[in-house]
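I have been asked to look over a protein record a colleague put together. Alongside the sequence sits a line of tokens, each denoting a local backbone shape. I have pasted the whole thing underneath without changing anything:
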Amino acid sequence: QVQLVESGGGSVQAGGSLKLSCVASGFIRFCGMEWYRQALGEEREFVSSISRIGTTTYADSVKGRFTISRDNDKNTLYLQMNSLKTDDTAVYYCVANCASNFWGRGTQVTVSS
């Protein structure tokens, strides 16, 4: 069982930056890690992933603006978000793809114009 706790969300103006963190209760070294988000009234959507060996993927909507990274020694996943847009407003979830999938409870990101 892996518990995930996201932090770093908040309110920011368009064009600003935020850095999300996700701290895992267990070792995530052998897990693929992902960020998802869900805007109010919308379906949950993939944002970014990073494999065990550091291979990264991004949704087209965030490519070039967001950077995913991980620190296995700290059991922590990060998402650096730059040039934020109002469309980035959502609850952001951390996911660990281990033998099972584990989800955090999410952190709210609100981008105002």
The longest strand covers residues 90-97. The chain has a mean pLDDT of 96. The chain has no helices and eleven strands.
